[in-house]
Amino acid sequence: MLGKRLTQLDDNESHCEETMVASQDEGRVDGASKHVWYSYVWSLSQTAVEFADRYNTALVCHRWCFLACHPRLWLRVDRSVKDLSQPGVFPSIETAVSAASPGDTILIAAGGSHVASNIQIKKPLCLIGGGELPDNTTLICSRGSDSALEFLSTCKLSNLTVKAELGCCLLHRSGRLTIDGCILQCESNPLDHLSHAIVSTASGPEVLQSSLESCDNRVSVSRTRIEGGAKAVLTSGTLALQRVRVIYARTSLFFWFDVEHRYVWSLSQTAVEFADRYNTALVCHRWCFLACHPRLWLRVDRSVKDLSQPGVFPSIETAVSAASPGDTILIAAGGSHVASNIQIKKPLCLIGGGELPDNTTLICSRGSDSALEFLSTCKLSNLTVKAELGCCLLHRSGRLTIDGCILQCESNPLDHLSHAIVSTASGPEVLQSSLESCDNRVSVSRTRIEGGAKAVLTSGTLALQRVRVIYARTSLFFWFDVEHR
Questions:
Q1: What is the pTM of this model?
Q2: Together in a domain, 227 and 376
Q3: 310 — phi, psi (to 5°)?
Q4: Residue 320 has what pLDDT?
Q5: Which InterPro entries match (predicted)?
Q6: What's the number of domains the chain is made of?
């Protein structure tokens, strides 16, 4: 649902016209009286507690996760694909490595075994196993080969199992090699003393006389199981094993260590680093999961029969009453929710659960002053609010943000009594005891306003400012602020 909302672009906006409406008030100063004028800025210090806007966090993380996991950003090795004319799909690791560009990520499909014998990698690449565990994606080095993979550039391996009968699993010639969450297995045989998980022939950093650049040759291993063989690491250059850490699990050992120059622990890196989209995808997926987790929301859903579930309420009023400052209330899509004179006195965020604001409707019954009444910093997003008489939203105090909503005043003979937004708040009150100020304002963006006598009616000291209107084919979209003149 979030992905659709993020990628949804309105073609109508390409033919839109913007109208800027600005108003300025000129004040007259009476010479007989003494006036103190304050220079008000657009942005005032906020003392109200801001709500944790998990909704926008979810949108951003979902978008990044979608981009990071997009198949067009990967080269895939998949033997089960019969149509090899698909772009970016290869039958073997060797052909994928040959076709890859520096910085590419190669995703090796899970299931079965992939043959890897003396494959030289001379460009920065990232090789990732496509299974949930490294056991699901296996690379087998055939007998008689020196190694499965030979690295001559900055590379990374992750979530893979590499098996070698003789020789070594990985041969490191030069560059920076990162191995994370893998399994390196040397098969048990009478010639175990000739088998090694990692062999490095690289030397220490070579500082060029013409510049300050250096060639950083090193191997970094983390969360990796090493089984069999004479040694985990064999070095024939000037690099040495350092900072070894081992975690003993029930059935296996997990290693963390570095293979680098004996005298330098941290070296400047000038090699071209690959775009590690895999880790980006993992981090974004985790954040998206946390931001979208149902336990982090209060939900209003009339279709749920078992109201004993934590965080689920039958109406908006009960959800607002039970909410804590900073909570986000997700209002289920479909049907209509009754909202009449609901006072919100704590910082909250109310979000419509549909793909569009039309899918989640709040109806203010006839005879009510407003659907929602705000007395604190709050935000509304992706909602439709309908009012027959009175107003859709009543702003008393605090900072109110309205984004991507629809405010509808029903057409009737008393249209002159209907308004989309009514604000009775006054300008900022500067406290004498400190520099804190109370920021009362309304910010509206990407919002459709239909019907009523006025879009905004103010009875305090706030005024409509910075109005921008986009004319689409079927509706008008408004951007404006209601704040101190």
A1: 0.46
A2: no
A3: -65, 135
A4: 94
A5: F-box-like_dom_sf, Pectin_lyase_fold/virulence, SHCBP1-like
A6: 2
Q: How confident is the model at residue 404, as a pLDDT?
A: 92
**Are the C-beta atoms of 380 and 422 separated by less than 8 Å?**
no
* Chain centre to alpha carbon of residue 209: 44
Three-state DSSP class for residue 23: coil
Reading the block at residue 339, the tokens are 């909202």
Q: How many CB atoms lie within 10 A of CB 355?
A: 15
What is the structure's pLDDT at 268? Answer: 38
Low-confidence ranges of the chain (pLDDT < 70): 1-56, 59, 62-63, 65-72, 188-194, 204-215, 262-279, 281-282, 285-286, 288-295, 411-417, 428-438
Q: Which residues is 408 bridged to in the sheet?
A: 386, 450
Q: Is 84 helix (H, G, I), strand (E, B) or coil?
A: coil
pLDDT at position 220 is 92
Same domain, yes or no: 158 and 92 = yes
End position of a domain, from candidates 224, 256, 284: 284
User: Do 270 and 346 fall into the same domain?
Assistant: no
DSSP 164-215: ESSSEEEEE-SSEEEEES-EEEE--STTGGG-EEEEE------B-TTSS-B-
pLDDT at 241: 87
pLDDT at 473: 79
Q: Which residue range(s) make up the domain with 94?
A: 65-284
Tell me the β-bridge partners of 467. 21
Q: Is residue 55 part of a domain?
A: no
Cβ atoms of 445 and 407 closer than 8 Å: no
E strands present in 262-339? 298-300, 312-313, 328-331, 336-338
Q: What angle do CA 320, 453, 460 make, to 5 degrees?
A: 60
pLDDT, tens digit, for every residue of 402-420? 999 999 887 665 656 678 8
Are 268 and 214 in contact by the 8 Å Cβ rule? The answer is yes
Exposure letters 193-231 (e unless 16+ CB within 10 A, then b): eebbbbbbebebbeeeeeeeebbbbbbbbbebbbbbbeb
User: Looking at the domain assignment, is residue 476 inside a domain?
Assistant: yes
Beta strand segments in 205-269, E: 218-227, 231-235, 239-248, 253-261
For residue 469, what are the contacts with CB-CB under 8 A and spacing of at least 6? Answer: 18, 19, 21, 476, 477, 478, 479
Residue 273 CA, chain-centre distance (Å), reads: 23
Pairing of strands 253-261, 239-248: antiparallel
Phi, psi dihedral angles at 33 (to 5 degrees)? -115, 155
Q: Specify the residue for token string 């029930």.
A: 250
Instruction: State the maximum Cα–Cα separation within the chain, in Å, rounded to a whole number.
Output: 108
263 shares a domain with 127:
yes
